[in-house]
Structures are given as C-alpha cells and as structure tokens.
Design a protein that fits this description.
This protein is mainly beta. It has a single domain, classed as Nucleoside Triphosphate Pyrophosphohydrolase (Alpha-Beta Complex). About 10% of the residues lie in helices and about 45% in strands. It has 2 helices and 10 strands, in the order βββββαββββαβ.
Amino acid sequence: MDATFYMEKAVFNYRVAAVMIVDNLVLIHKQANDEHWALPGGRVELQEDSQTSIVREIKEELGIDVKVDRLLWFTENFFDYNNKNYHEIGLYYQVSPLNGRFNFNNDEFFGEEGERLVYQWVPINTLDKIRLYPEFIRTSLSGLPDAPQHLIVKQYSI
C-alpha cells in the first residue's frame, strides 16, 4: 500500500525520485498524456524505507538494477495537479545503473510498464527548455550538492 492519502480536495504523497546521470545526460519521464516531465520514481510503500523504494521503483519501471549513491534533496513540495492540492514529501537520490544493458540514446522510449510512462535521456544543459517539475531540478542538476539539502518548493500548478 502506497504512503499516499487522498482527501476531498487534497492529496498527501510520499515519493522517491532517481537522479540518474550518465555522460551529462539525465533520465526523465512523464505520463504518456501529460505535457510535463519529472524524474523517474514513485510512491513509497507503507513499512518500506525510501532507499528500498527507489531501487524497487526503477526495477519495476525500467527492468534494471540500480545502486543508491546518495541522498541529494529532501523536499516539501506543494502544487496543484488535476484540481487537487498536493503536499508531497520527496526524497531525491542519485543512483547508478548496475548493468550495462541500458539504452542511453536520446530517443523517447517506454519502460517495463508499457506505454503508460515515456522516458528520455536529455542533456543536462537543455533542461531549461523542458517543462520539468519540480522546477528546481532544471537548474540544480548542473551542480549537485555535496551534502543533502532540505528544500521547500512553493505552490505551482501543473
């Protein structure tokens, strides 16, 4: 069971995200019907630690094993999506693929879950041209923090 709680007009969400960078390319994804992108990841399950969650999510979505390198950001993220107010706790981990069978080209592709999610490797220096949420990601990936940072991401609409 996901650590997500739905109320009439609001949602509380506990999410993990993977920062996977290879040769100055970062992996992003989006729901097939959405116009915005995000870092891959998903919801933490109840009674599951966040590092186990990100390894599980990447395995489920992409079929690859990753190792967790380090925590980059702990976020309190407030936004509107689909006419709901979201309060999201997000942990952003730098991860590395453990095997070499991953396709690192710039074309969009689907993961293990079919056509629900679209993935793409994009150059970090082009993120300013992409609708990527939360927005701090667009500028923060060019200089990763030396120690984990706590960020409060103010209200925005997707």
